[in-house]
Specification:
alpha/beta, Arc Repressor Mutant, subunit A, 2 domains, 6-stranded mixed β-sheet, two-stranded antiparallel sheet, 8 strands, globular, transcription, Asxl_HARE-HTH, HTH HARE-type domain-containing protein
Length: 333
Amino acid sequence: MGMTLNDAIIASLDEIKEPTTYMQVYKKIMERNYYDFRGGKTPWSTVSASLGNFIRNRDSRVKRIPQKGGNFTYFLSKYESEISITALEVVDNVSTTAPAQVSGPNQGFDERSLHKLLSSFLKSTGVLSKTIFHEQSNAKDSNQKWIHPDMIGIRFLNLHTQTSQAFLKAINRLGTFELLAYEIKKEIKTDYELKKCFFQAVSNSSWANYGYLVTFELNDVLIDEIKRLNQAFGIGIIRLSSNPFESEIVFPAKYKELDFITIDKLCKINPDFERFVEQVEKYITADSRYISALGTELTNFCDSFFSSETESATYCKQKNIPLDKLLEDNGVF
């Protein structure tokens, strides 16, 4: 199967790296023969419309900058730190309305099959994540069931020079990274389900800088109560999409200091968690000569992720995860 138009756009932006116009993206697609427009009369207009859809659908991979005359330039989010601050001063806000999901029961897929969707979304926002298998924990009693998050993640502060990186590490190594915890659910449809899942997330993320409750289906009637709980306890909410790059942080989590007593306890009882902490420690304490190799090692240790929406759509079909209606409308399947 060849590239979808969206994948071709992502590949082109990845090569260009800096903010660019829809016409330059179109030219790059044609230059690389990434996509067959099948004789369309104005294929550049199709590219322009598709770039707009990335923004309207809250796709985490792409951002845009308003230009004079109502035009925009587009770039990949992962290159944002390398783009001049002046160029990024005005970035437009996007709609927070979630894309419609295909209706139908979701009982045909396993909750853990959502992990790869989440890891793909997190990777696009600069977070490396790792599934924590509670079955491997040494603590088998039921009193420990709300101490394990489903997934953990790490985000590194992106500094451009070795001098600034070394200076920050010398002052405070904790300032170079943030640890995150994720509790994942297939659906949250009632107030009772929300309360139960939310306080499970509170318990499971007590040790982390940020804690999130992640769900594939969320009843919008609960938004006001979620906002209240978010403000009171600081747990963020992520609405997961079958196109992981269009997943939505409904409410961001609030920062808190790391709890090293709980981290120590999790290291003792769960080998997955302990190995993750070991990998992070090796990376943040490494000599600059070994940073690149250890970064690759950490990435390979963490959960795998999708590089395109075509891959994620194929995976969802295999796992019986309902596809977003937008994926079907765009002809991915």
